[in-house]
Request: fold
Amino acid sequence: MDQNSIDALRAQPIAPFGHLIDGKVVSASDGATMDVISPLNGAVLTTVARGTAQDMDAAITSARAAFGDGRWAGQAPAARKKVLHKWADLIEAHALELAVLGVRDNGTEISMAMKAEPGSAAATIRYYAEALDKVYGEIAPTQGDVLGLIHREPVGVVGAIVPWNFPLMIGAWKLGPALAMGNSVVVKPAETASLSLMRMAELALEAGLPPGVLNAVTGEGAVVGEAMGLSMDVDVLVFTGSGGTGRRLLEYAARSNLKRVYLELGGKSPNVVFADAPNLDEAAKVAAAGIFRNAGQVCVAGSRLLVEAAIHDDFVAAVIRATEAMRVGDPLDLQTNIGAVNSEAQLTQNLGFVDTARAEGGEVVTGGTRILQETGGNFMAPTIVTGVTPEATLAQKEVFGPILGVSPFETDDDAVRIANSTVYGLAGAVWTANLSRAHRMVRDIRTGVMHVNTYGGADGTVPLGGVGQSGNGHDKSLHALDKYINLKTAWIKL
Ligand code: ADP
Reply:
């Protein structure tokens, strides 16, 4: 990856994207399109199809037909494995193209996008390719002349709704295990980050995935997403995004066919720093990166910094230094640490949170403003607010932007109480050299993921999922496969 190749790719025009239905690129049923606006400079990059409910239904019908005739689920596991590996090969071969396309669309800094997007998407697809022929049924420990067999079957048609922050990585977290288990899938990318996911879907066909097994429909969540949610023919709906949309999806399921709905929602993840942390300078740098990379648009971002009162001022000063050393700007520059905010609307919302934090008594100690306005892009200075009370809006509501709220704590119990004082439970971290304290914090802080003396690291071998209003179900690891299968019992008299 070098700057010249990135710059060459960024100069290329992007052809309009249609839906991918039944192996073909098609326009919206009424021919409508949506402009794709660059978060880097506000220019119109290209268009995507503005899907209709009819388009979504056509994609679901295609997926159902593909599942019904066994063109994928009926193939030998070794054959399906080969196709998924080929897909991963193609993603790797097109990694820079995919990463640059995605960054032009969503604004993530390229240094992060390269790893987190095509890199991790390919790794995820390989992981599930390898797993698919290691999933067996079970024989129950029955007594006497009966045999209880437990089969694992694909569910049928999976609907996947993907957000804009990491379309390839999160897309692969859903598509990899869903396809590995033999299902057909319809994916709906986010309005403001469709391009790279649509391209990744095209590569699946090139890899030999039969037509109709993976369909991709662009458009507004409230139109095509709703049609997917209300469909009578989608068996499982998997989603990453906001709590508000998650609630709607549960309603859609209730109003239609009671489809299973798995939600990976937001967080307000606490990063808890004790005075006995092994390396406070390192902790400060990681705390800054843990909230500010991808401009804070990360579901597991460490957006609440809880600092032991004895080191509060010194530690905050170190986090400010680390933050101010991060370069905000052109996401396609390899030196950039913090890219663009995804959309103008998101930026306005972020600035609103800063105003509210001030009004509620918080002190903005760095950032707080829009910057680089002359570029026409959506850039915000990484922002730290101190004196955030546990009840304050900034401590309670997910911002999904580059804003860190800091609160002091006195004792271990205090730290746990504050850490657990939101409706969320996605991720968290504790920094301490005390082994017992580290384990107690892991046990007592209510989250799906806890980090110790680090923040944000993980790979595909471990599950990611939330508790409380951060959602249900898990992406990644073998546990994710459970979402995409049905258990069926065969009770046999011998
Ligand atoms: P964010 O606030 O992170 O943009 P959203 O939940 O609005 O989160 O978006 C995540 C995904 O959900 C996007 O693909 C979006 O199009 C989709 N979405 C938004 N509204 C709906 C809806 N009413 N029904 C189904 N999907 C929706």
Notes: Residues 464 and 475 are 5 Å apart (CA to CA).
